[in-house]
Design brief:
Layout: H1 2-25
Length: 54
């Protein structure tokens, strides 16, 4: 019985996590999305790499 619980409990937690992620991704607007599509518009700070001769 203990082996059954050690297998079922982690699987139930994974299923719950997947369900919560799906629910958050269905929220309208950008605030509900876990991941935004596309690249960020923020400028990258720092020096540009040098062009190689050739």
């Amino acid at each position: 019985m203990a082996t059954f619980v050690t297998v079922v409990a982690p699987l139930a937690m994974i299923a719950l996590g997947v369900l919560l992620i799906q629910l958050f991704n269905r929220q309208p607007g950008e605030h509900g999305a876990a991941f935004h599509h596309g690249r960020s518009r923020a400028a990258v700070r720092g020096r540009r790499p040098r062009k190689e001769a050739g």
